[in-house]
Every structure is written in structure tokens, then in C-alpha cells.
Amino acid sequence: LNRGYGQTVAVFLQCDVTEEGDLRKAMDFCHDHFGVFNVLVNNAGIGESPLVWMAEHTDDVELGRAVREQVRVLRIDLEAVVVGTFLGIQHMKHYGRTGSIVNIASMGGLMVMPESPTYAAAKSGVIHLTRSLGFLSNTGIVVNAICPSFTNTNIIKAYGENAVEDLSKRVGGVLKPTDIAEAARMLLQDSAFASGGHVMRVTVQGGYDVWVPGKKRTPIKALL
């Protein structure tokens, strides 16, 4: 990225999103390095082992491991987004600037997921957090969310060497990470989303559209 732009436009900084101190350090670093902190994308996320809820865990060690996995999914996929959003808002107010926050949710937060109910619950929480913060646009801070369908990331790849290909055949295609980046770009730059609280769906079949409970699909454009 830096090579393409011929200057330092990206910097790597390790951050454990479950640690408040790491999140605050990352935001301060961004402001100190670039001279501004006005965009935050809460993107970190993990999946859970399939069918773990349907299994009978008779061994205490196995049971403990399964419980810890559910807690870890909630901490990274929901708690870290809540804390990250809260701290992001505080930092933007502190630096006296307006700003935009994009939370990466999932289509799994809009439908039932029998194989990954904890993941679905976490992403549903992200969606409702985002919608509930729409009022902040009156203060100059805009919070929106993206709900992608299955995307070619490590969450899918963790299920096996051919997981992406197999899933793509089963559901009619998977998204590319760049598809999600384009959604973030639209939410950050298009004035149509400046009122905040918007949830943009991204799917192979439907492209980009806005989700509103109880209303018909509002298409924006097809995938690039």
C-alpha cells in the first residue's frame, strides 16, 4: 500500500481488541502519527466451531474448552466492538473533530445460524448497537455497519483446505475482502449515509443494499 502511494499511508500496529489499553494506544498512535483520528473501522472477528451446541460434552475439560470458546467469540465479535466504538467516540470528541465509525457485522446477525448461534448473537448485537447510535450524527459522529455474506477470509478457511471452494458452490459464491472495503468506502464518503445508524448488506446475489426492518430491499449497486 505504501509502495503504491509512494508515501507512508499505512502503519502496522499490533492490537489485542479485547484489551482496552491496546485500543486506546492504537487510537492515540493514529492521531500522533497522522495528525488526525476521524475514522474507525471495527473489523476484528472470529468464528466458532460448527455444531458445538449440538454435541454432548461429557468430559469436563472438553466442556470447559467449549464454554471458553463461546466467551471468546463474544469478547472479540461483540464486546470489543462495543468498547472500540465507545472509545472511538470519546477520542473523536477529545480531539475536537467529527468522525465516522464503521462496524463490521454479518448477514449472520440478520438470520438464524444453527451451526454458529454465538457468532450470530454477537453480530446481531453489533447491528443493534450501530442502529442505536444513529443519533450521534447530530453531534458530527456517524456510526454505520456492514453486513457481509460469506467472505473469503480465515474464518472460512479454518474449516478446511477446500472450505472456500466448497462453500462457494453451495451458496452461489463468496465475497472478496475488497467487496467489504468498497462498502466501507461508500459509508465513509457518501453523504446519503451521513445520518448514521445505517446497515449495509453485501451479498454476491444482491450486491450492496440498505437493510431496514420491515421494509423492502433498497438496492444501491451490484458488486464491482
Question: What topology does this entry show?
Answer:
Elements: H1 2-5, H2 20-34, E1 39-42, H3 60-94, E2 99-104, H4 117-132, E3 141-148, H5 154-157, H6 163-171, H7 177-189, E4 199-203, E5 207-210, E6 218-221
Parallel strand pairs: 1-2, 2-3, 3-4
Antiparallel strand pairs: 4-5, 5-6
Please describe what this structure looks like:
- With 224 residues, the protein is an alpha/beta fold.
- The chain has helices at 2-5, 20-34, 60-94, 117-132, 154-157, 163-171, 177-189, and strands at 39-42, 99-104, 141-148, 199-203, 207-210, 218-221.
- Strand 4 (199-203) and strand 5 form a beta hairpin.
- The longest helix has 35 residues, at 60-94.
- The radius of gyration is 18 Å and the shape is globular.
- The two termini are 20 Å apart.
Give a summary of the structure in a few sentences.
This protein is of the alpha/beta class and 224 residues long.
Q: β content, as a range?
A: 5-15%
Q: Count of helical segments?
A: 7
Largest β sheet strand count, sense and barrel closure: 6 strands, mixed
Radius of gyration: 18 Å
Which structural category fits the helices and strands? alpha/beta
List the helices and strands in order: HHEHEHEHHHEEE
Give the strand line-up of the largest sheet.
1-2-3-4-5-6
Give a count of the beta strands, DSSP E runs of length 2 or more: 6
User: Distance between termini?
Assistant: 20 Å
Which regions are unreliable across 5 or more consecutive residues at pLDDT < 50?
A: none
Q: What fraction, in percent, of the residue positions are helical? A: 40-55%
Shape: globular
Mean pLDDT: 92
